[in-house]
Amino acid sequence: MTEVDLQGWIGRSRVTRDTIDANQLAKIAATLDCPVPALDEAACLPPGWHWAFFPDITPLSGIGRDGHQALGEFLPPITLPRRMWASGDLKIVQPLSIGETVDKTSTILSVEEKQGRTGKLVFVRVGHEFAGNRGGNMREEHQIVYRDAPVPGAAQPKPMPPPDEPDKSITLTASPVQLFRYSAITFNSHRIHYDVDFCRDEEGYDGLIIHGPLTATLLMDMASRQAPDKRLKTFTFRALSPLTHVHKFSLHIRATVDNSFGVWACNHRGELAMTADAVMT
To answer: For the residues of 70-94, what is the DSSP string, one character each?
Structure first.
């Protein structure tokens, strides 16, 4: 596929509509093993929980070999076999509220090909605008990376050390049941999250991959707990290496300035898996 072909997908847009309903909120809370939030109409959707709404609803006939929606519908038909979230940037202008009906407008902003240490890479950046009928307003950009299949015996990228000494840390595990539930409530059929044989034999991982949005949601929650009298305004994150269910992982937070926090996740070896900046207001 030529560069012109890929660039031709820039600007494609679609609109999906969903309602922030109590039943879905209860499912998210159960999956995160946390209390169900207040369900009155004045209550705000907790940060990161919007990823359990606006799913891509694709019939089985439209699913690719990896369980994802086959490319060439909304996202460009990139032939590289592996894909993951690479980064995200969320701006909450006005939080979505319980019971609010929201239109999500998604637009492909850029498609960029690169040559990495492990082979060819293609980055697709997608912008999302959330507009609710009660004034809820959020803006998000997320970047997807597509990669070559793993090469047996290839040298692994040098791990990145954590950025700072944290103010607080917690250690967690993610069970296959939790990952299955998160896939279910987000209608994410990507096999790396529930098919361990596919993970090991096809993708070269040692276990099920913990969803990038799930890790980001846990980091948002950590920041929100550090400033319970404020709400999240912006959250920018970058995924650096995958976390798998067979090992414990840790979350860390450090206050910076002006109601801002640096938050990050590390694998069981203490190597950086995700880094983020959270700004509260």
So the answer is: PTTSSS-----SEEEEEEEEEEEEE
Enumerate long-range contacts of 13-16, CB under 8 Å, 24 or more apart: 13/105, 13/106, 13/107, 13/108, 14/74, 14/105, 14/106, 15/103, 15/104, 15/105, 15/106, 16/54, 16/103, 16/104, 16/106
pTM score, whole prediction: 0.92
Q: Give me the chain's average pLDDT, please.
A: 92
pLDDT in tens, 219-234: 999 999 999 999 999 9
pLDDT of residue 61: 87
Where do the H-state alpha helices sit in the chain? 3-7, 22-32, 176-185, 196-198, 212-226
For the chain, which residues score pLDDT lower than 70?
Answer: 1-4, 118, 152-157
Bridge partner residues of 48 (DSSP): none
Full residue range of the structural domain in which residue 214 is found: 3-280
Domain total of the chain: 1
Residue 58 contacts residue 69 (beta carbons within 8 Å)? yes
